[in-house]
Description:
Layout: E1 8-11, H1 17-28, E2 32-35, H2 40-52, E3 56-59, H3 69-81, E4 86-89, H4 104-138, E5 146-153, H5 154-158, H6 164-184, E6 189-196, H7 202-205, E7 213-216, E8 219-222, H8 227-235, H9 245-254, E9 267-270
Parallel strand pairs: 1-2, 1-4, 2-3, 4-5, 5-6, 6-9
Antiparallel strand pairs: 7-8
Helix pairs in contact: 1-9, 3-4, 4-6
Amino acid sequence: MGNLDGKVALVSGSGRGIGRAIAVKLASEGARLVVNDLDAGPAEETVADITAAGGQAVACTGSVTDAGFGERFVKTAVDSYGGVDIIVNNAGYTWDNVIQKMSDEQWNAIMDVHLAAPFRILRAAQPVISAAVKRERAAGEEVPCRKVVNISSIAGLGGNAGQSNYAAAKAGVTGLTKTLAKEWGRYNVTVNSVAFGLIRTRLTEIPAGEGGTIEVQGRDIKVGVNPDLLANMEQTIPLGRSGTPEEAAGSVYLLCTPESDYISAQTLVCGGGFTA
């Protein structure tokens, strides 16, 4: 028996890194997963790992920024499992530059993936959640506490040089979270966010200057942090190290459990003691 037995969870960007760890953790506690990634390969690998461990998962591949993706993501959950209980808006990447060198394309791309995409997914989920609550109340059933966890960053709380687009988008996630907590409280939905600090993923582990890039919709985006800079950053963290994807997933899981049913409109910082 898991804490999330029977729950249906959508996790965007869950083919790799933190998102994959979140999907695997929720599935290990009994949730049925809709896994998403930009590429089919990583999404199917996560699905295969979950099913091999005895869980249930299906894939919904594609970019969260595509027109109609939100509706397709939610429809996959409804068609596969009959409803929606947990939504984790995790997909994203960084595309950094100082403001005088940042293009409109850079600004808009990061705002779209980190802020507009979660908005569209949540907008698509509202009719499904509302209809489910109406059915439950009409039948005299207890309305279960559904969960939304939006992924933010300490950059959104305190800013970060070279990341005006990312920091602004993540600050916007806080506003979206607090607003939805007020709008969806009547449906017994809690809406919270997790602000990650330094977590070791493919976006940080490739040394800068050594050709580390990821491809996002035809764009080659530089990733990675210089090892010396990474070590210096870790010295500012009270726990003395960066976090793992599994530890990041644990913080999201906390806000998906029944024990958090009266926690809403909050931002949990998962940063090893480092705050903005």
